[in-house]
Amino acid sequence: MAEIEIGMGKSGRRAYGLDDVALVPSRRTRDPEDVDLSWEIDAFRFELPIMASAMDSVVSPATAVTIGEAGGVGVLALEGLWTRYEDPTPLLAEIAGMSDSAHAIVRLQELYAEPIKDELIRDRIKEIRGSGQVSCAAISPQRLPAFADTLLAAELDLLVVQASVVSAEHVTREGDPLNLKTFVRRFDIPVIVGGCGSYQAAIHLMRTGAAGILVGVGTGVTSTTPQVLGIGSAQATAIADARAARMRHLDETGVYVHLIADGGIATGGDIAKAIACGADAVMMGSPLAAASDAPGGGAHWGLNTGHRDLPRSERVTVEPAGTLTEILTGPAHRADGRTNLAGGLRRAMATLGYPTLKELQKAELTITPVCR
Questions:
Q1: Are 268 and 64 in contact (CB under 8 A)?
Q2: Dihedral sign, CA of 318, 198, 248, 363?
Q3: Residue 180: predicted pLDDT
Q4: What is the H or E stretch that residue 39 is in?
Q5: How many Å is the maximal CA-CA distance in the chain?
Q6: Which CATH superfamily is domain 29-169+177-321+330-367 in?
Q7: Residues 6+ apart with CB under 8 A from 2
Q8: In terms of pLDDT, which residue wins out, 338 or 2?
Q9: What is the pLDDT of residues 152-183, one digit of tens each?
Q10: Three-class secondary structure of residue 23 per DSSP
């Protein structure tokens, strides 16, 4: 891709977000009932290509079950309130009731200073598994070494190793480097790692042996990473770059690595565009935090909001949209695309003429700076 000169001594690529692209219909259409929205990763099959973000305002053990019953998968934050407190419900209500975001951040910093408890990790995973749903949970690369044995003993089904930016190897002067490949291959379960926002980062994460890669940096509603650190990625371009990395990795190894678009996705149309760019599934936070039965109670924040000395996400208020089930699978009673996400994706695929998600990845895209 041609670079644009920023000044005489520096140039950069033009990058595109999902709002900058539009899907182009093919030569045929289909009945919505003939469209298959299912997604498979390793031995697990999900009826919807939707993962709920590992945020306390989005996923609790109870909502993980609800999301699983609707066809998606809820990712529990292993560094969140549910693994620090026996009953965090009053604390969640307290944060939701705070009108000042700055005060909320201070309070979250206090709450997240409580140590993570191994027994609560085991209990939360057991609660989800006991419901018959796939247990999926997320932890940061820095915490993984300390809790690896606990996760193995808890018989977690699907592990997400996640941070704002994840690299295949973290170099430090204090002790040995953290080699993500070592931990990924230690677990006899599928591991998803991320986020990343470039071709090189994606290819290196794929070489760790991960089953999936999270794509997206600083694109979420709560994220202030672009402001605090100056780091970010335009989602459509980031997915397309990771798609190219996947093709190279597949040619080299014969192993297909799934791409999960994480951030900047609010509607069924956004899901369709992310998949057309090359994603296999999406991870969503704020659209699900808007559910009346979401644990955040109308408030939404990321784990970085409670970082002890450098918060990199805000606590925001989200407009109610319906129940979790209504947001995921309908019925919809509004025309903004925020409810019945599966219905929107299904109708988009039918209109475009693609029967499966893999086929949708072949869709033609146009660049339209204002497409909605």
A1: no
A2: positive
A3: 79
A4: strand 39-41
A5: 61
A6: Aldolase class I (3.20.20.70)
A7: 13
A8: 338
A9: 899 999 999 987 555 555 544 454 445 778 88
A10: strand
